[in-house]
Amino acid sequence: MAYYHLVAFLVALSCFLGVLNASAGDVDPQYRTCVDQCKKSGCIGDACFASCNSSSGGISITGQWSMKEPLYLRWKQWDCQSDCRYHCMVEREKEREVLGARPVKYHGKWPFRRIFGIQEPVSVVFSFFNLAMHFHGWLSFLILLYYKLPLRSQSRKTYYEYTGLWHIYGFLAMNSWFWSAVFHSRDVDLTEKLDYSSAVALLGYTLILAILRTFNVRAEAARVMVSAPLIAFVTTHILYLNFYKLDYGLNMKVCVSMGVVQLLLWAVWAGLTHHPSRWKLWVVVVGGGLAMLLEIYDFPPYKGFVDAHALWHATTIPLTNLWWSFIKDDAKFRTMNLVKKVR
């Protein structure tokens, strides 16, 4: 389960990556002038944008023009300011490239190129691949427990004591990767809050699961006593972020604290366990450690598409597969031991 705590820690790192108010790109006078002129005229050179309220000739644009936009653009709610910022950024980066200058960040983000209106297409694709891997892992886990391993004769329930907990984990993980894909597709206030909230919920739950599994807590009353205060804390924090203030600094401290605690719990457990599939833990530990370097080493997107964060999403795809493989091995191991005791 070493991968489990590494993934939790990486999620913790991603929790506090907030959008900055000022970057080298958006304080550039040429970029700012371009944006101001675009918002007034609705055009950059010969290109005019339906999201702005006036054409280059100052003629008012009716709502019918914007309604003629393709649905895949309309649902993303690109407004005049965001369209002007994007196209001015593209033009400015072309000029900088001719001069041999390196790309710079604009409003806290690298200059990504859109595809069908999607802001970070590669991260979106890899996020959906991660979601698919979690779905496949969860589904194969379910099939293993209910169709391949023995069930209790009286209740027809599984022998594995953590079945329900891993089901919840699967749903929360899929939910988190779904909103990650949506957030990378279009960064607005709502998608940002949903992405952050999903990551915090996943971290909070994984902390609960880490405590229950490492300390082998099986009694329902004891599980409730452990879970209740943590659920209350995580719920309060999510409500605070959504309805009071999206405090990146506070969120960083909360996410990192939860990640570090489970990191320590799983690290000690992984060192002490004699699990037959523990080799998988060490594989994902090394892989997870290398993946974490991608989050630390931030670099501009290659050709405007692939950056360090997108590569991190790519590395978690095979690690997720191996992680669910270990979960299934753990279910087999625990089930076989319990069946032997019953017999």
TrEMBL record:
Its main location: membrane. It is found in: Endomembrane system; Golgi apparatus membrane. The keyword Disulfide bond does not apply. InterPro entries: Per1-like. GO terms for cellular component: Golgi membrane. The chain crosses the membrane at residues 124-147, 159-182, 194-212, 224-244, 250-272, 279-297, 309-327. The keyword Transmembrane applies. GO terms for biological process: GPI anchor biosynthetic process. Belongs to the PGAP3 family. Involved in the lipid remodeling steps of GPI-anchor maturation. This is Post-GPI attachment to proteins factor 3. It comes from Nelumbo nucifera (Sacred lotus). The lineage of its organism: Eukaryota, Viridiplantae, Streptophyta, Embryophyta, Tracheophyta. The gene is LOC104592138.
